[in-house]
Design a protein that fits this description.
396 residues, alpha/beta, binds pyridoxal-5'-phosphate, Aspartate Aminotransferase, domain 1, three-stranded mixed β-sheet, 15 helices, seven-stranded mixed β-sheet, Aspartate Aminotransferase, domain 2
Length: 396
């Protein structure tokens, strides 16, 4: 049997031990932990909707109307008018004929990939894709081929070298740990030349980038003929929970018939769908949230440059500060916490070895003073990442 304590000990020694922070109260730019208040720069609540009064009120109203639980899977008796209306509104938002709700983005990706890529097929994925896209390909039984990050030419070469057969290309729209955008138009050209399906997971793009927050594909002017499969999640910019796949009527009907992570699981609470409908309305109507984010991100990048901090190219609310060494990143995260700022250290295997980082994220609910405070504190700390430090005590 596997020696669990030895494996855990080794993980700690390498600075890779993960532990949870217990948040006491709602999500927001200020969160309470251990009886203290922290200024947070590490949620995916980009538009500040997770605790928005109208979204919370819609959740309450949904509970009154539908009760707490859905009671069954969508295909039995768990699919409510709230779910159905949300699907129609999501389809309208991303300008595709239909959308299908999944319980989570992880499940959506597993479900879609298992249906579209079976044994004998090939799935080509960006090296930096989200774990759920990589796991989906692995579990599908298809052959997984990874291409260099955002490198359409490398993808083209690998497609060229592959034998004929069912082929699917999958990419994040906005990369979750780097914040950069996939070159979706180039990828769509390459995919089309090789008669491959293209699937874009726009978990971090929807609500944040593109006209009206309609995401990476809307920004690039790509419709369903160029990118047949779009995955979106609802736990990020929408502030609630869940995910969806959008595409043609045939795609959605096929998923309803075959996607095991759709069929064999309880439908999410209808009240949650009601809350998300309200959040989606705010996403669509309130452009000022996206404009605010841009102001904050630019202020941060300018300030960081003045401090000599190197940030990779990113125009999204995801602004990683690459530290390198995992233990050094942890140490820095702990030092920030000591100064009242919450930013988690992201370490391998979530990111490649040697590229541990502080994943700094912004929300439309932050203000300028808070960005300046973050810059002040970063200025006080050693962010060079060159010093090898021991794992800070509180992580032991
Ligand atoms: C967060 C995320 C997911 C998973 O979505 P959940 O709803 O949290 O399971 C999938 N893909 C990407 C790119 C993500 O960032």
């Amino acid at each position: 049997m596997k020696d669990l304590s030895a494996a855990l000990g080794e993980r700690k020694a390498r600075g890779l031990y993960r532990s949870r922070q217990v948040v006491d109260g709602p999500q927001g730019v200020k969160v309470r932990m251990d009886g203290r208040e922290f200024l947070s720069f590490c949620s995916n609540d980009y538009l500040g909707l997770a605790n928005h009064p109208e979204v919370v009120a819609a959740f309450h109203a949904g509970l009154e109307a539908y009760g707490a639980g859905s009671g069954a899977a969508h295909l039995i008796s768990g699919h409510s008018t709230a779910h159905h209306a949300l699907e129609e509104e999501l389809a309208d938002f991303v300008q595709r004929p239909r959308a299908l709700l999944f319980s989570t983005g992880y499940m959506a990706n597993l479900g879609v990939l298992a249906v579209l890529a079976q044994r004998g097929a090939r799935v080509f994925e960006d090296r930096s894709n989200h774990a759920s896209l990589l796991d989906g390909a692995r579990l599908s039984g298809a052959r997984l081929v990874r291409y260099r990050h955002n490198d359409a030419a490398d993808l083209a070469q690998r497609l060229q070298a592959a034998p004929a057969g069912e082929t699917l290309v999958a990419t994040d729209g906005v990369f979750s740990m780097d914040g950069d955008l996939a070159p979706v138009a180039e990828l769509a050209d390459v995919a089309a030349r090789h008669a491959a399906w293209l699937m874009v997971d726009d978990a971090h793009g929807l609500g944040v980038v593109g006209p009206g927050g309609r995401g990476t594909l809307a920004q690039a002017g790509l419709d369903m003929t160029r990118v047949p499969v779009l995955v979106g999640t609802l736990g990020k910019a929408c502030g609630t929970f869940g995910a969806f796949v959008a595409g043609s009527d045939e795609l959605i009907e096929t998923l309803i018939q075959e996607a095991r992570t759709y069929i064999y699981t309880t439908a999410p609470p209808p009240a949650l769908a009601q809350a998300t409908r309200n959040a989606l309305r705010l996403v669509r109507e309130e452009d000022w949230r996206r404009e605010r984010l841009q102001v904050l991100v630019q202020r941060f990048r300018l300030g960081a440059a003045q401090l000599g901090l190197h940030l990779p190219e990113s125009a999204t609310p995801i602004q990683p500060l690459i530290i390198g060494d995992a233990a050094a990143a942890l140490h820095l995260s702990a030092a920030l916490r000591g100064r009242g700022i919450l930013i988690s250290a992201i370490r391998p295997p979530t990111v490649p070895p040697g590229s541990a980082r502080l994943r700094i994220t912004f929300s439309a609910a932050h203000n300028e003073e808070q960005v300046d405070r973050l810059l002040d504190v970063l200025d006080q700390l050693d962010t060079s990442g060159t010093v090898k430090v021991s794992v800070p005590d509180e992580y032991e």
